[in-house]
Design brief:
This protein has 48 helices and 7 strands. It has 903 residues and is mainly alpha-helical. The longest helix is centred in the middle third of the chain and has 17 residues.
Length: 903
């Protein structure tokens, strides 16, 4: 009998185990969390690596959490999350009542309708509590079968738990949605090399003849499972080389066929028992409950199953398969009739209204069944209300398949499309919309279909053409007397139309919005005002409204509230923090975009790279419009730092799409940012020309509100090009402030344009604007201008003001602005030298991040491996190295070790 215990270190997996070890060491040493995704075909050794990582983590004192995806549990919201954190929840004493209720509701312990994001926030708090006692390792196997709600929470932990001693190690096949959308660059677990395969085969089967081993090595092609399983099928004489081998050995994807052949050797009773065990996934069959469904004395059958090496019964009464492929083979080898009979038997173990019973009944159904379809629709709708939109969409799709009436089928598919969009399955929404377009859509769900269509067009296709066509008609239908409003769809449709109007400035969209102003909520009306006619009271009205809304109302109006704040350029951190804990997954992108823009405005520029990570994740999920906007937000950091080459790269990435989609919002902002970058380098005439493309001086700032935010930049360029009259004329048009930041920008612009006898007082008045210290970059620019003005007029205080500005610019890594400060300080008699203690610089001239990447590259790691260790994409790593080489005066990676003193 071959010893099947895994080796201490998996054969041929040095690269993978080094990456896993680095992640564990990083977390155990207090350097923060990380995630590793192992991706590969079935049988390639992912589960073995997970087992090795689990042992290593336990030996290092980690708390290990584990969840395994199962194909039959993919429809059950938060099922995998339940596996992972239930033990922590039982022991927790730090969760708030609201957080505990969210998790209890998600796990079905109590009634309630938790939002998906509330579950994520509660899970983060739970893991953080555990991490205070010991570092935590979260091991996730078979990600391709983990339910969407759990996968989204795990992805949330990956993004928001970066500061915790938390290591997340996941494994899955390439075809799984959760694997494709996991927010970390995957480590591809590939077939073993010929030498490593021979070592594994020789270790497991030392008795193999050379000719037999050679044939198996050739047929297995480096697949570890095939290397282990193929010899098991051979007779002893074949292993020893005394008998000929079969003409064709199964390998790769044909391994399932090999298991199917072994299944044929079982008795019908044992085969039925094995099928019931394969289909009885989930907590409903724990404690051996599935064996009671089988009935009779099954001990003999279990012994034959275990003797055949197919599966074994664990201590909890579950049937544990030797490998997922075995379970897959059991199910695929069974006839339709046998599968249906097994599903019906398992369904009988649950109450009539239990979602798990319905799932089994639906799997057993071969013909249309309206009663079952209706029950699936009810349960799917309830799941969506509990935050399981993605799972609800699956049940609605099943209901559609079982619908005899084509109209009912279209209705259910339409709801499935909307739920899938809200649940983060945007590509699936787009596919369902295309399917629905092939036939008639009933009039009663036409507004819902229009909403789903626009959702896919805007977010996935970055196309706003359908918005002005479908959404006004949908609003007309939804607001007609006695019309079905689909549980608050009016405000959601209104928001989508407002988004299209804001991005494209389409006059038809604006007219429709104005026509329906009185048919929407207060939040909808306020959002329209913010984007068309903002006044001094608009920000106050937003804060009052947000404070007055209940938690449920906040969740329903999250997009409108965030978009209102965006129009006013006011970073309302309390607002998005409240919404991030209360709304579903579809709003994560809106909250993340608000956070990115807030980071820019408030000087948290060390978070700039988050924009690119969010963009990559959005692209993976199919939210291409969000990805474009995240890159647009990243462009603000580049422009502020005067990084014109980086800004041009972003423009090449998003400019063509924004132009095709007629996104004036993005195109005007890019023009503004080109001007800001020109200001950084002192090219004032060029900057002035860019700003005038958006809002010529002296012209009233009508239309969208973003030209209001140009006032400081335009006046700066005008004053430096001798256009004082134009600067004052532009200022005269801005007598009304629309937000705290706008008030500061107006005061700063007024100081720059003031005559000499009033200038010093005007600068100090700008400093005194309430909240001025919040606008870190803008305030530093004002100090630079003030210090320069003081120096040129030989006034006291210039050096002090300039030193403060210089410190800020160095911290922001806004190098052109810092050099301008240094020039002014030297002219004022204050020699400036880079501080050796400055955390933004190293003796090599590299930033800390560039130095870390360079040192890892010097060891021979690839960009992908470096990205995995530092939680960056390979493209980001390449971009850093692109800047490193000229700074170090080298042209290749081979020279890195010598230059850095590591070789």
């Amino acid at each position: 009998m071959v010893d099947e215990a895994p080796a201490p270190t998996p054969t041929g997996r040095r690269r993978e185990t080094e990456l896993l070890t680095a992640a564990l060491v990083r977390a155990a040493g207090g350097a923060g969390g990380s995630a590793v995704l192992l991706r590969g075909e079935a049988g390639v050794g992912k589960s073995t690596l997970l087992a090795w990582a689990e042992r290593e983590a336990r030996e290092r004192g980690f708390t290990v959490l584990r969840a395994v995806g199962a194909e039959g549990e993919a429809d059950f919201a938060f099922g995998a999350l339940h596996q992972a954190v239930w033990s922590l929840l039982q022991r927790s004493s730090a969760l708030s009542a609201h957080q505990r209720e969210s998790l209890d509701s998600a796990f079905g312990v109590r009634a309630g309708l938790p939002s998906g994001f509330a579950v994520g926030a509660a899970t983060l708090a739970l893991v953080a509590e555990a991490a205070r006692r010991a570092p935590v390792a979260l091991i996730l196997d078979d990600l391709q079968w983990i339910d969407s709600s759990s996968a989204t929470v795990f992805a949330f932990l990956r993004r928001r738990g970066a500061e915790l001693p938390l290591v997340i190690v996941g494994a899955g096949r390439p075809e799984g949605t959760a694997v494709r959308t996991w927010p970390v660059e995957p480590v591809e677990v590939r077939a073993l090399s010929r030498a490593d395969a021979a070592l594994l085969l020789g270790t497991r089967y030392p008795e193999l003849a050379a000719s037999t081993a050679e044939r198996i090595l050739t047929e297995a092609a480096g697949n570890p499972l095939a290397l282990v399983e193929l010899p098991r099928q051979l007779a002893d004489a074949q292993r020893r080389g005394a008998a000929p081998l079969p003409d064709r050995l199964p390998l790769g994807r044909n391994l399932e066929r090999m298991f199917a052949e072994r299944l044929e050797a079982l008795t019908p009773e044992a085969g039925r028992l094995l099928l019931l065990g394969a289909l009885s996934t989930g907590d409903g069959f724990s404690g051996g409950a599935w064996l009671r469904v089988a009935g009779g004395d099954v001990r003999g059958h279990l012994e034959r199953i275990e003797a055949g090496g197919l599966a074994r019964l664990d201590a909890a009464g579950r049937l544990v398969f030797r490998h997922p492929l075995v379970r897959t083979a059991v199910i695929s080898a069974a006839s339709d009739c046998a599968r249906g009979e097994a599903h019906r038997a398992l369904a009988a173990a649950f109450a009539p209204d239990d979602p798990r019973r319905l799932a089994h009944e639906a799997s057993a159904a071969l013909l249309p069944d309206e009663d079952l379809a209706h029950r699936l629709q009810d349960v799917g709708t309830e799941l969506a209300c509990r935050g399981g939109d993605a799972e609800g969409a699956l049940l609605l799709e099943r209901a559609a398949v079982l619908s005899a009436d084509p109209a009912q089928r279209a209705r259910r598919l339409t709801w499935a499309a909307v739920m899938a969009a809200r649940g983060g399955q945007l590509r699936h929404t787009a596919a369902l919309v295309e399917e629905l377009r092939s036939g008639p859509v009933p009039d009663d769900v036409a507004p819902l279909f229009g909403y789903a269509t626009v959702y896919a067009d805007q977010s996935h296709h970055v196309d706003f053409t359908s918005s002005a066509v479908l959404l006004p008609a949908a609003l007309d239908a939804l607001t007609a007397p006695g019309a079905d409003t689909f549980d608050g769809l009016v405000d959601q449709v209104y928001f989508k139309l407002l988004l299209a109007a804001s991005y494209t400035d389409d006059p038809c969209a604006w007219r429709a919005l104005e026509r329906h102003r009185d048919n929407v909520s207060e939040a909808g009306r306020l959002c329209l005002q913010a984007w068309t006619d903002p006044g001094p009271d608009t920000v106050g009205a937003l804060r009052t409204l947000a404070d007055r809304l209940t938690q449920e109302q906040q969740a329903g109006t999250a997009w409108l509230l965030l978009w209102t704040a965006s129009a006013l350029d006011c970073p309302e951190s309390d607002l998005w923090q409240r919404l991030s804990g209360l709304h579903g997954y579809a709003s994560q992108g809106s909250v993340a975009k608000a956070r990115c823009h807030q980071d820019f405005l408030l000087g948290r520029w060390d978070q700039a790279s988050v924009c690119l990570r969010e963009a990559e994740e959005a692209d993976e999920l199919g939210y291409h419009c969000n990805a474009l906007m995240f890159r647009h937000h990243y462009a603000h950091f580049l422009a502020g730092r005067g990084d014109e080459s980086g800004l041009r790269e972003i423009e090449r990435a998003i400019g063509p799409t924004a132009t095709r989609a007629r996104m004036r919002f993005v195109l005007d902002r890019l023009t503004h940012l080109r001007g800001l970058a020109a200001l950084a380098h002192g090219r004032y005439e060029e900057a002035y020309a860019h700003f005038c493309e958006i809002t010529p001086p002296g012209r009233p700032p009508g239309g969208p509100p973003w030209p209001h935010m140009l006032v400081f930049d335009l006046v700066t360029a005008a004053v430096h090009t001798g256009r004082d009259d134009e600067a004052r004329a532009h200022l005269a048009l801005h007598s009304v402030t629309i937000s705290d930041r706008h008030a500061f920008l107006l005061a700063a612009a007024a100081a720059l344009a003031a005559p000499d006898e009033e200038a010093d007082a005007a600068y100090r008045a700008a400093y005194a604007v309430p909240g001025a210290e919040r606008w870190v970059f803008d305030l530093a620019r004002l100090r630079l201008a003030h210090g320069s003005w003081l120096r040129r007029r030989h006034r006291p205080g210039a050096r002090q003001v300039l030193r403060v500005a210089h410190h800020v610019f160095r911290r922001l890594r806004a190098d052109p602005w810092a050099r301008r400060c240094e020039e002014e300080l030297r002219a004022a008699g204050d020699p400036v030298a880079p501080s050796p203690a400055d955390p933004a610089a190293e003796p090599t001239g590299l930033t800390g991040q560039e130095l870390r990447i360079a040192r890892l590259a010097a060891t021979g790691l690839s960009n992908k491996e470096i990205g995995t260790m530092l939680q960056l994409s390979p493209r980001t790593v390449a971009a850093h190295l692109y800047k490193v080489f000229p700074k170090l005066g080298i042209t290749s990676r081979a020279a890195l070790a010598h230059v850095l003193g590591d070789g």
